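Bit of a strange request maybe. I'm writing a small parser for structure token strings and I need a real example to test against, not something I typed by hand. Could someone generate the tokens for this chain?
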Amino acid sequence: MFSNRRTALFAVVAIVVLALAHDAWSEGTSYQLVENFFKLPAGRKIGSTAGITADRDGRSIWVFDRCGDQYCAGSDAAPIQKFDSSGQLVKSFGAGMFVRPHGIHIDRDGNVWVTDGEGPDGKDPRRNGKGHQVFKFSPDGKLLMTLGKAGIAGDGPDTFNMPSAVLVAPNGDIFVGDGHGGNSNARIVKFSKDGKFIKTWGKKGNAPGDFDAAGPHALAMDSRGRLFVGDRGNNRIQIFDQDGRFLEEWRQFGRPSGVFIDRNDMMYVSDHQSNQQTNPGFTPGIHIGSAKDGKVTTFIPEPTAEPSQEGVAADGAGNVYGSLTGGMALRKYTKK
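Reply from user aminoacidic:
Good idea to test on real output. This should exercise your parser:
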């Protein structure tokens, strides 16, 4: 009997603590969290998700999840998913093609670009012949282009090693953030619109133009054509011109896991790793500010005690979206 009462007491205390934490979070931000916005078919759950973005018209949200789990190897779930403005799933594709989905980008023509951030590991045969690639799909899911060699990690002009992000410039040039820790790469690779190698820049380090061993984790581009790179492990965003010339670095947006710039040059940066050890003075959440002058104007604090919000995006109405890796969830925030 005593054990049952103690268990019940702990449950009540836990509920009270969570309620107080939620109230404190609500009072500390100008945004409110919309519960259960994204709707999936029966039996389909969202998996670990680093990739989330909005299309050019700002009405649809695209998600690149890990097939309801931590990986897609062996799964028949479609990881590329399109949601409409009401959170309904309207399209999905890409089943059986990926090992570990990571980055996603929608170009000006509505084509969908994604990166497969891992490959064979010598243990799981379901990974063999897949991974370390960048894919371009039509809006309806037709495969249009593949960069990299399936299942082969490398640092040459036609290979990647754990590519994290991809972005397409207005003229069609393709930029890939290649690397994600360990013995992977730490570079940006540039291709022409038809997939021909142009150049690469960057190496492991912390000097201007270098990238932390964790690699260039996120890419975005402003209206001036400047390339913003989330150099997460170095607690900074690096800004380059499209030829790879270093312009400046910004540290006021925290430790960037995701970077999204909308058509009005508002920049949204997700940070789930900052603490007193990794990045003193910063806490997990989403920083919102101007890509023009770097001024941070809004902060959405992480609403839970276990942050893992890596992806970030915003729609045309100013709603903000986050995707979680460890937490395996999707979020929507609206202004109060």
